[in-house]
Specification:
Argininosuccinate synthetase, chain A, domain 2; 3-stranded antiparallel β-sheet
Length: 275
Amino acid sequence: MRDFVFPMFRANAVYEGVYLLGTSIARPLISKRLVEIAAETGADAIAHGATGKGNDQVRFELSAYALNPDIKVIAPWRDWEFKSRTDLINFAEAHQIPVPKDKQGEAPFSVDANLLHSSSEGKVLEDPWVEPPEYVHQRSVSPMDAPDEPTEITISFKAGDAVAINGEALSPATLLKALNDLGRDNGIGRLDLVENRFVGMKSRGVYETPGGTILLAAHRAMESVTLDRGAAHLKDELMPRYAELIYNGFWFSPEREMLQAAIDKSRKTWKAKCA
């Protein structure tokens, strides 16, 4: 949260106007830890389970090579003979490798989840003309089932980062969890998107980012008070480029760090007016 999600939210980053980059921002963190563990254990390689069709293979590998250009990255889905979950299960059964019952058969859709969000795609979600089944949503009640009464909260910020809810100081992770609970109960944070992947294909995803949606709205509201017109408009001009860098896997790139420095420069105004 502190080193990845919060810096991203200082930029109000959204990809293609709506996506809060919940999966994208997790990949550089995972890669960073993989490279650290490799160094600690004396390993010369790391591995990831991303397929050859998606963005994650790029994000994992660009991050790893940025942190250690000499590291070797093993990507089994690009190298081995297995092409599907069914192939893996058949191999396991043929070699007496136990497979949990909940992993057998084809899942109706795939899920990626972390503290910031969950994303679902594939199978029942392939056709963008078909409304997602309600069971796809895991982090929010339907807006139709949300309370008719408003839930009012106060989010406190310091130097551009959220630090408290209703006056109670919270760590970054605890604060986001609390916002997730509030968003879930009020039907906030659902997104149905057909996005342009870095690898050149379109993909339909159903995303849920309840806490992040609240945090973004609150952050932009605070900036409307603390930033002058020129700074606010410049940030909005820089944001799409910043978001695209994260989406495409360039978190550790000089470009992203340069943009971050410009974005964080505005925090001096926050310190003066909202500390």
